Amino acid sequence: MKVPNGSEITSETLLRAYAAGIFPMAEGRDDPRIHWVDPRFRGVFPLTNFHISRSLRRVIARNNCTIRTNTAFSRVVDACADRAETWISAPIKDLYHSLHHAGYAHSLEVWRDDHLIGGVYGVSLGAAFFGESMFSKATDGSKIALAYLTDRLRVGGYLLFDTQFLTPHLQSLGAIEVSRADYHLQLTLALRQTANFDPPGYSVAAAGILQRNTQTS
User: Is 88 helix (H, G, I), strand (E, B) or coil?
Assistant: First the structure.
């Protein structure tokens, strides 16, 4: 389904779309139109199956990054759109900023020496998290972001981590592809529950995430 102008879609419309299992995309950064996508096959991260390789484990164990959430949402979205081809148009940016201000959209940021080197953003609804996009400005930046995000979602009680599509990069980290019917079933179950993006007492200490990953791998 296409609409003539992205400004006609509200943040409430976007939340209803997520609850129905569809998400928005634009043909390019300068396209004012938005179309809805409901893929035949969907990428998802089983939250107990994130794969931290030996090399990534060593990177995290160095503990030379600072992990923050929701301190640079706009910068994360801009960095995700900063590529030759992107589906993140100005109307889509505005929609996610509205969801962020309403408490539904979140960013997880990886900082090193006060430089933003990686991050991911997405939408939280019930016990479902819809990952929208990620970026990396340094080696393993996006992998670190996904490792910490997956751990946070697991501890926070999420049941579904939607990645939209399955890419070789995501597959190497443990993501899988499910049918549209299976995805909608998982979504229905997740929307009946509640989860917390900021679980009480949650720690981003490197030792904790590595230990919890070892226990669930």
Answer: coil
